Amino acid sequence: MNAIVVHEFGAPEVMKLEDIPQPKAGPGQLLVRVRAAGMNPADTYMRSGNYARKPALPYTPGNDGAGVVEAVGANVDGWKAGDRVYLSGSVTGTYAEYAIVASSDAHALPDRISFSQGAALHIPYATAYRALFQVGKSKANEWVLVHGASGGVGLAAVQFAHAAGMRVIGTAGTDRGRELVKREGADSVLDHKAQDFAAQIAKITDGHGPDIIIEMLANINLGNDLKMLAPHGRVVIVGSRGDVQITPRDLMQREGAIFAVMLWNVPTEDMAEINATIHAGLTNESLNPVVGKELPLADAVQAHKDVMEPGAYGKIVLIP
């Protein structure tokens, strides 16, 4: 089968398309024919070797994906060949034509959701839900500012917050991105590069400020986030690409808080809640993953370059 294989950490070019043996499902596992693989910024950090977790070399990247169950291993109940699934993890990596997954990491994919949309589900939607509700303790009618709202996690946060009755402000760096964020449920959409950005936030919220800020690029925005935060507000960091200097008094005078999320820290019971909520949102149609670009598996190198560029628009997925 075709698969992307990484033999050494480094630039995107270390990823090679290779013909490797098709794996077999063991006890408690499924063999899934991957129809689309989700590509996340964390994949690029891992490939570079600059991530808190490093897989053993060689490895095939990818945890997110969607496809069809090809075979069922021993001691597995509830799944059969032909079932449509999206994945929340993979034993062998999803940048491949076939992947082995633990049966607990497979989830039913409704017929209305395409495989590419299914590949855009797990990390973006689990991260957004974790940040908004499990860590950020968001409530209906609160003001939420979603930075980078046109990307995968940002759009998931907008959809979740809109469905929960929050007042949603989203930011994006392009007209096309802002149109998308508005379409997906934001009440107000701003250009985060605007010089009067903070003044616009104050005007929209009648001087109150955001009760919660979902922050995708803390090394750029965190200092300014603290200056506009509402009393007792919370900033939840989802992403950061470097160090940042802040003024603690900005936080002190608001009795605010800074939190952060990382999915591998999520307890089992919290992840079960996340998966149940995603299932409910897919069923009631409040959640609709947006795929901005589909690339063939052979273009994984280009995909890893594209995902780090500004102007995000939905998810990038690879098609084996």
Topology:
Elements (H helix, E strand, L loop, with lengths): L1 E5 L8 E5 L9 E11 L1 H8 L15 E9 L11 E5 L9 E5 L3 E3 L6 H5 L2 H14 L7 E4 L5 H12 L3 E5 L3 H9 L4 E3 L6 H8 L7 E4 L2 H11 L5 E4 L10 H5 L4 E4 L7 H17 L6 E6 L3 H7 L8 E5 L1
Helix pairs in contact: 3-4, 3-9
Task: Give keywords.
single chain; 320 residues; Quinone Oxidoreductase, Chain A, domain 1; Rossmann fold; 10 helices; 15 strands; 24% strand; globular
Instruction: Return the CATH topology of the largest domain.
Output: Quinone Oxidoreductase, Chain A, domain 1
Distance between the termini: 10 Å
Task: Enumerate the spans where pLDDT stays under 50 for 5 or more consecutive residues.
Answer: none
What's the architecture of the largest domain in CATH terms?
Answer: Alpha-Beta Complex
Count of spatially separate domains: 2
Mind explaining what this structure looks like?
With 320 residues, the chain is an alpha/beta fold. It folds into two domains: 2-121 and 289-319, Medium-chain alcohol dehydrogenases, catalytic domain (Quinone Oxidoreductase, Chain A, domain 1, Alpha-Beta Complex), CATH 3.90.180.10; 124-264, Rossmann fold. It contains ten helices and 15 strands. It has helices at 41-48, 115-119, 122-135, 152-163, 175-183, 197-204, 218-228, 248-252, 268-284, 300-306; strands at residues 2-6, 15-19, 29-39, 64-72, 84-88, 98-102, 106-108, 143-146, 167-171, 188-190, 212-215, 234-237, 257-260, 291-296, 315-319. The strands form three sheets. Strands 3, 4, 5, 6, 7, 14 and 15 form a seven-stranded mixed β-sheet that branches. Helix 8 links the parallel strand 12 and strand 13. The radius of gyration is 20 Å and the shape is globular. It starts with a strand and ends with a strand.
